[in-house]
Specification:
By secondary structure, this protein is an all-alpha fold. The protein has one domain. It is 81% helix and 0% strand.
Length: 79
């Protein structure tokens, strides 16, 4: 009974969503800093602006397959 109340609590759901976003932001910055250390600050800025873990995960996939730093810089630059 209490488990269900806990799981359905709007506050708990909100905290879990925030935690997922923070995790995605950290993962995103770590991926970029490992491949392209010069882009770490740009990655942090992009991660801070993100409001969805899914969007960051999609962008991280593009970064992983990007051929070079210039391509990643274009992905991270505001359009």
């Amino acid at each position: 009974m209490y488990d269900q109340l806990w799981e359905e609590s709007p506050r708990i759901r909100q905290e879990r969503a925030k935690a997922r976003l923070r995790g995605a932001q950290e993962m995103f910055v770590n991926i970029i800093s490992a491949r392209f250390p010069a882009l770490t600050e740009l990655a942090k800025q992009q991660a801070e602006q993100a409001n969805s873990p899914n969007a960051l995960n999609k962008l991280a996939r593009k970064v992983v397959i990007a051929p070079d730093e210039d391509a990643v810089r274009r992905l991270l630059s505001p359009h």
